[in-house]
Amino acid sequence: MLGVRRNRNGLDRKKKVKRESNPIASYETSYRESIDQPERFWAKVAQMITWAKPWKRVLDNSFEPFTKWFVGGELNACYNAVDRHIDGGRGSKIALIHDSPLLGSVRKITYFELHEKVSKLAGLLVRLGVGKGDRVVIYMPLIPETIIAMLAVVRIGAVHSVVFGGFAACELCARIQHAEPKVIIGASCGIEPTKVVNYIQELNDALTMSTHKPSKCIIFQRKGVEIGDLDPQRDMDWEEAVKNVESAPCVPVEANEPLYILYTSGTTGEPKGIIRPVGSHLVMLCYTMKALYGLDPDDVWWTTSDFGWVVGHSYMCYGPLLYGMTSVIYEGKPTTTPDPSSYYRIINDYNVSTVFTIPTVMRLLKQTDPEGKYGAEYDISSLKRIWVAGEHLDLTTKTWTERIFGVPVSNHWWQTETGSAITGTCQGLKNVCEDEGLTTGLPFPGYNLKILRKDGSEAEANELGRIAIKLPLAPGTMSTLYKAEDRFVKTYFTRYPEEIANTTPAMLARVITNAR
């Protein structure tokens, strides 16, 4: 397949699309071991992160479906995402690049600087009485301070619940009432191409409706777009409040304690509070950066999502930082900030090697700039691959994207409940697909997948059916629903005939509706 690469002089050059890999083991070997000998397999993978205390047992599946991984082990998510890179001599490396065409600003934050900002905010939270297990709601836009807030919360062993900035007061209120946060961290506003979203007003309205009132709200005032007055009794200006605060150290927590609560409505109406266990999630995320995405820590990674969604948690915050990478945060739109050149410019300016986005982004670019003319002046030769997930990828969109960007497009499938891919074509392992087509790949290590008919019998090849995941679920999958363990079991688990599932409950993922 031939793709078009644009160089700085605007000249096109043809380049064969490479399907690169960086094998650390074969897919077949890794997958089979993860299913047949999960304790041995995940004990090896878990060495990718740093533990404050070793685990006593890798897997405890004695109380299904409430599986536990790395039982008794202790660690801290912030230490693994920030401090350990500094301890390893990589503190001067750029951790985050924030690009905001709406404000005309670019900020680059090193691991040293990230550590300082996170530690100070964590110290403020401690001063406000936040401790291990306490909840903190975060309501912020696409700015580095959102990641700083997330890391500050988990640094002291507390639990964050990030709310999508596009949610208005009613949805924010529902999450505040359910999570009952001791403190809320917010921002003054979000920036859109045609408007400024007043976050403070939405927060005020939500708290007026809420029966739960936090002790304090920490508000980050965005420079150049000051909005609203703070409540002197309740609100604190972030930058002023941290000036005379002692930095807080990392607090290790047991591996099965919650890292965060993430609310999802899914297809069942009432929002569900997904609880993510800290230990196994960090292990899985770090592993996916290498095994699935085939990345090197020196690669530059760019995920186009929002922090309020699971992709924002896994692959804008934790995944790339755990792996010690540089990650781009783009506060803009694909075609209107200011025009369809934005994606090419970002790749060019920061030598992005991998983009993780949704097919709709590429459909928008194709619709507004079908020949990629807006990208002609940019050199995007650093790009190696584009990953998509979250919705159907059609052949036309995939073919167009590969032609214009000159790299393979890889589709993969996962959901909020799992926190990372259920299926994918592993670029960091020995590849099993020469031509990926529209496939979402094979089961990722740890996921024992079966395609079943309604009666529980196993489907034939190419037959539509239900995707069932046999217990134990892979590391990093949600451990339960917050304040709703009965709902957790009723919503996600059923029992198939003994000859198919050996009387083991299976997690229903979705009904296959197309041949992706």
TrEMBL record:
One of its GO terms (molecular function) is propionate-CoA ligase activity. Pfam families: ACAS_N (PF16177), AMP-binding (PF00501). InterPro entries: ACAS_N, AMP-binding_CS, AMP-dep_synth/lig_dom, ANL_N_sf. Its EC number is 6.2.1.1. It catalyses: butanoate + ATP + CoA = butanoyl-CoA + AMP + diphosphate. Residues 27-81 form the Acetyl-coenzyme A synthetase N-terminal domain. GO terms for cellular component: mitochondrial matrix. PROSITE patterns: AMP_BINDING (PS00455). Residues 91-472 form the AMP-dependent synthetase/ligase domain. Belongs to the ATP-dependent AMP-binding enzyme family. This is Acyl-CoA synthetase short-chain family member 3, mitochondrial. It comes from Acanthoscelides obtectus.
